[in-house]
Amino acid sequence: MPHGFPLEQCRAVITGASSGLGAEFARQLAPGAEVLVLVARRAEALEKVKMELSGTRTKVLCCVSDLATEAGRSDVCAFLAANGVKPNLLINNAGMGDYGSFASSSAEKTRTQIELNITALTMLTHALLPLMETPGGILNVSSLASTLPMPDLAVYAASKAFVTSFSEALAIELAPKGITVSCVCPGPTPTNFSQTAKRSDGSDTNRDGQALLRIPPAQVVREALGALQAGRACVFPGVGVAIAGRVFRLMPRGIMRWVLRRRSTKE
Ligand SMILES: NC(=O)c1ccc[n+]([C@@H]2O[C@H](COP(=O)([O-])OP(=O)(O)OC[C@H]3O[C@@H](n4cnc5c(N)ncnc54)[C@H](OP(=O)(O)O)[C@@H]3O)[C@@H](O)[C@H]2O)c1
After folding, report:
1. CB neighbours of 127 closer than 8 A, spacing ≥ 6?
2. Which domains can be identified in the chain, with CATH numbers?
3. Is any ligand 1 atom within 6 A of the Cβ of residue 137?
4. pLDDT tens digit at each of 267 positions of the chain
5. How far apart are CA 234 and CA 238, in angstroms?
6. DSSP string covering 3-41, please?
7. Known catalytic residue: 59?
8. Closest C-alpha among 64, 5, 4, 57 to residue 30
9. I need a labelling partner for 242 at 20 to 30 A (CA). Which of 6, 43, 187, 217 fits?
10. Is 48 a catalytic residue?
């Protein structure tokens, strides 16, 4: 069992920190952190999160960047260098979905989704690893969706399968180097996610049966940080999501496809 990452006095880069889970990571880390670098596209929303944290002694820096572009990812590295920040914790949280059939999806939104959910997470990890002081930590935000193929969220679920697999492999590779890697696989969580995933002519991702799995962002983040501290490679926050994750991972794929086909033809 690898050692966990001690959160006290961390110097953390949090992507997607302008809302939802990312902002909550900042709130929960702020009381004990040394530096927090908040990354997202919306400057005003980042400043609002920074204001919220002004009562703590933590130094909070806002880095406005579009992580779905290579230039935006380079800007993050330049920002860290310019501000003399040597991070020891990277929270790859920024992500988005696109709810609807793949055939009718916009090529642009699909490309952005892959750039953000996969390329940004991978390349930012690659760029920051050499800068990272040990003990170090990497916390990747995956999803319960990583455990199953999801019609109408096909690219999203596949991108999160990448995140979980990548994280579990890195956890093994980096443990001897003193870097703990964990991934968190939340179920449906009330944030802006559903609205962002909604198409202009479509419905949102809220569906029957989700109420049983839904837990507040604060609990998702608490369990995610707990897993990183304990050196656990993967956590499914909330009892319902933990059970669902276990069942989906063990279910034979043929049965899984049959259930998903029935569910999708019923709608
Ligand atoms: N909520 C759920 O039900 C749920 C379930 C499982 C997993 N997750 C995962 O949780 C993570 C956080 O999502 P959330 O639920 O907190 O949703 P959210 O409230 O929509 O937050 C998404 C964050 O990502 C940032 N972001 C989006 N595009 C970006 C870009 N191109 N460059 C930089 N930042 C960008 C957004 O900031 P800006 O708009 O300011 O750029 C925002 O801060 C995602 O990886 C998501 O897949 C969510």
Report:
1. 73, 76, 77
2. 11-266 (3.40.50.720)
3. no
4. 557 999 999 999 999 999 999 999 999 999 999 999 999 999 999 999 999 999 999 999 999 999 999 999 999 999 999 999 999 999 999 999 999 999 999 999 999 999 999 999 999 999 999 999 899 999 999 999 999 999 999 999 999 999 999 999 999 999 999 999 999 999 999 999 999 999 998 876 666 668 889 999 999 999 999 999 999 999 999 999 999 999 999 999 999 999 999 988 766
5. 13
6. -----TT-EEEEETTTSHHHHHHHHHHTTT-SEEEEEES
7. no
8. 57
9. 6
10. no
**Residue whose pair of structure tokens reads 């702020």 in the numeric block:** 30
Orientation of helix 107-114 relative to helix 154-174, angle to 10°: 10
Per-residue CA distances from 259 to 56, 149, 187, 201, 252 (Å):
49, 11, 18, 27, 11
What pLDDT is recorded for position 263?
87
Cα-to-centroid distance, 258 and ligand 1 (Å): 30
Q: Which residues pair with 35 in a beta bridge?
A: 11, 59
Single out the catalytic residue among 109, 156, 177, 198: 156
- Ligand 1 centre to CA of 151 (Å) is 20
Ligand 1 and 13: CB distance under 6 A: no
Q: Which atom of ligand 1 is nearest to the CA of 96?
A: 47
Ligand 1 center–CA 172 separation, angstroms: 26
DSSP code at position 54: T
